[in-house]
Amino acid sequence: MATIKKLIDRIIVFRNERDWKQFHNPKDVALSLSLEASEVIDHFQWKSKEEIEKYIISHKEEIGEELADVLYWVLLMSHDLNIDIIDALDKKLRKNEEKYQIDKAKGKHTKYNKL
Amino acid sequence: MATIKKLIDRIIVFRNERDWKQFHNPKDVALSLSLEASEVIDHFQWKSKEEIEKYIISHKEEIGEELADVLYWVLLMSHDLNIDIIDALDKKLRKNEEKYQIDKAKGKHTKYNKL
Amino acid sequence: MATIKKLIDRIIVFRNERDWKQFHNPKDVALSLSLEASEVIDHFQWKSKEEIEKYIISHKEEIGEELADVLYWVLLMSHDLNIDIIDALDKKLRKNEEKYQIDKAKGKHTKYNKL
Amino acid sequence: MATIKKLIDRIIVFRNERDWKQFHNPKDVALSLSLEASEVIDHFQWKSKEEIEKYIISHKEEIGEELADVLYWVLLMSHDLNIDIIDALDKKLRKNEEKYQIDKAKGKHTKYNKL
């Protein structure tokens, strides 16, 4: 299965062929990340739980495309800022394991500082 | 290097241990995606190009953590909606290769429908 | 009751006293607008309809504060871009009255281009 | 000049004629607020300071329309949650006057907790 590294390589080739690095300053790249996340939300707004369930089945491809857009920018930004995103996710999960201890957090949607 | 699949597995174990699946409806998960993307932006606001360059060097860990949060939700949502995110990214890149033909798009930050 | 103009005047006095105009470029101001809107959302995430109803009653002040932050940036941006926001809202409502004709749109959450 | 109250009244008439109150739960309304704020940002992305200056002059109407959309949702939400938005903005400005004392905050884009 694809490694993160291969995906990043492909994204960078795509960008280099188009000479787009010049536009990819961190502020605008972060904006893209946010704008694409908004497009994911767009699919679920004004819909009830039942409507969403049906919608997901009939629009899986479209939602997948929006999620791919978000992933694209996460990987590109990690690359440009020289961040090892696998390592970052690993660290964050460890941190959350500490913050949300199983015995306290189980079954609760409470922020760690209120547990 | 880590595959996407292994990361997803780890995220799902983390969630199952805390019995949090019950809260993860698509609308609220999409909101998390968007809220975490906003936290990435937060690092770059009100800063000039030069300030951002310095900031990135001294805050790489914090930015990496925010990007990891976004990745966390992309992977969790893909899993829950039964979307193959690798395949989705692959398709999206192919689509963008079509939309942004190298000879037309090179060196321009113009939307494909205005090229 | 307060007019929009008086509110804008007060915001501009607040800013001028602090000499903050130099930071208020349109991109960063638009970011503030979006970040404050995210803080409004934050109040409603992970909550069921019933939980939200209770939450609103006990957190009216906090939510009002976030909405005020959004309004602050709408008014400041309108001012800086020399946009008459009252006129803009008036025009937009007229446009929406056209797009969402009562007989077609009544009781439906469908986008105008799908009505 | 228009008072906030008159604008709210008009928005509510527009909504009632279309029988849309049934869809306007706080979570989805907050989403609208955020999605419309994203559309404001969209106008400024990938553009340099100089490009933005030109763009604003030639696209004032479009930007005004997006700001009007944000204002629409701020006013509608205030109304539905029974929040006096004028009073909320007044309180917030007073609070910010305290947090950002002129002698400390003048000419600085530093968060109050770091001043």
What is the structure about, briefly put?
The structure is a homotetramer of 115-residue chains. Chain A has six helices and no strands. Chain A is mainly α.
SSE pattern of chain A, N- to C-terminal: HHHHHH
What distance separates the N and C termini of chain A? 38 Å
Give the fraction of residues assigned to helices of chain A.
over 70%
Major sheet attributes of chain A:
none
Q: Structural class per helix/strand content of chain A?
A: mainly alpha
Give the uncertain stretches of chain A in residue-range form.
Answer: none
Topology:
The structure is a homotetramer of 115-residue chains.
Chain A: H1 4-18, H2 26-42, H3 49-58, H4 60-80, H5 85-99, H6 102-105
Outline the structure in words:
The structure is a homotetramer of 115-residue chains. With 115 residues, the first copy, chain A, is mainly alpha-helical. Chain A is 71% helix and 0% strand. Chain A is built from six helices and no strands. In chain A, helix 2 runs antiparallel to helix 4. The A-C interface holds A 27, 31, 34, 46-47, 109 and C 27, 31, 34, 46, 109.
Offer a few descriptive terms:
mainly alpha; globular; homotetramer; 115 residues
